[in-house]
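Reopening: Translin-1 still failing for me.
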Amino acid sequence: MDVQVFIDLQDRLDLESTLREDVKDAIKELNKTCRLASAKLAKAHSVPKSQTREIIDAVAPSFQAIRKCISTLVGLVEPVAFYKYHDMWSNAVQNACALVVFAVYLDHARLATPEDIQEFLGCRVNTENNDIAEFVITLEEYLHALISLFSELSRLAVNSVIVNDIQRPQEISTFASDLYSGFQLLNLKNDSLRRRFDSIKYDIKKIEEVQYDLRVRGLIV
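Support: Ran it again with your exact input. Result attached.
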């Protein structure tokens, strides 16, 4: 028996093991950078709307660092092996997308599009769900990021009142309602997405309670 076959197999296993460790290191750096960006964006909850532009400017370097981390992943994983390792970085990429979605809302009061995600992160969203010919952000990751925005909006509605920005909760309520209506048009088959979508109603309720309290106190018409 030719043992060279097993020697070659071990070499391939070693290469794969090395690649996995490199991917883990890249993901670790991505998570670290996302936490830093999240901490900077979180300051938007403690200032009125008029001051959010300063926060967006401050977080811009962190988004550049996030893009660099994702670029490192792109360089490590060949498209043919994308789904083989995809589960390793999916949560980290979801978090990065969620940061983009929140930043775009803070800056422009609109929903982040797949084009925005590509502009910030350097990877396109695979909205067609076609065969992978490059490193992409999956449609599910993009939708998870949009769902994450609801929790940020509910928190922002409460904190806006705390900083005496009374009009903002009304804007948030209108936007969140429109976004929720959009999600209701989707027939979500993915279990994870479905569970998270079902939780949106609690964030909507929290935003409506803020609106109700303001109206009862006569602070808004």
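DSSP finds eight helices and two strands in the chain. If you still see a failure, please send the error message rather than a screenshot.
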